[in-house]
Specification:
Layout lengths: L8 H8 L7 E6 L7 E7 L3 E6 L9 H13 L17 E3 L2 E7 L11 H17 L13 H12 L10 H14 L6 E4 L8 E4 L2 E5 L6 E4 H12 L9 H12 L6 H27 L13 H12 L7
Antiparallel strand pairs: 1-2, 2-3, 3-5, 4-5, 6-9, 7-8
Helix pairs in contact: 3-6, 3-7, 4-5, 4-8, 5-8, 6-8, 8-9
Amino acid sequence: MAVYSPINESELLSFLEQYDIGSLIKFEGILEGIENTNYRITTSQNDYILTIFEKRVAAKDVPFFINLKKHLAHKNFLCPNPINDIQGKNINTLKDKSCVLVSFLNGKKVIDVNETHCQQVGEVLASLHIQTKDFNEKRLNSMSYINWKDIFSKCKNYPNHNFMHMFPIIEEELLYLKNHWPNNLPNGIVHADVFKDNVFFQKNIFSGLIDFYFSCNDFLAYDIALTINAWCFDEKNLFNKNRYQALIKGYESQRKLTDEEKNSFSTLLRGASIRILITRLHDQLFHPDNAFVNTKDPNEYLSILKFHQQINFREFY
């Protein structure tokens, strides 16, 4: 979450006339995250989140994201539920961009991650994979290998920056992934963004998963790999084996991994590292000067990538 498109009270009041959600009490921008503009809105009826879609979110993909959340919410999966306006629509326009109003989830991200949190995250991820088997809409992954290459090519053309030391490592890794990426693993709907910012807890109990705007069809194990990288390294970027084993235990309590998935983890983890490393690099270099957003350090994922380059993860299973 972030604020790229500032709005004032008058603009918001005019927008909210389309909804029957009570009168506006207050609103505030949310700076966490990096992809879309987000506001927390409090009305006389309830709290809501307004998301204005920016940057990498194509307008044509928004119905997929909204319908996916509606599908999961209908199954009592703890995620934001899109709010219909008075005409029955749940996708609207603000600042000439697609936007959506969704229910507010109580809870907050966890600061001191432990094995209990990781086990619950594994359970939630497996539950999402299982409960979306009957979701019939499809979306290609807009952050796949070809996109990594395109984004990196754009970064290489940026002059005078402090990240040149990464470039040879990224070049070599992209070549490795091109030659070693797995085929024919179990495929389905993936969240593709289960970072700590997007998982809420109340009193150390999972209370909601948000930010479905990278969701797509891809290898289920790739979703796990992205999640492992986000949850199983500490603040010094050191791998925590106990967190990893707890996350896998939680996942397999709902869905057993195949041997092919287990054997592919090392490569998938390297790809998951490159995906975040390159997009963080891009966001550092092409950060809009007028945006209220906390960009994240790509060096964190350079460290994680280097770890995966030296480890066979089957040894940790």
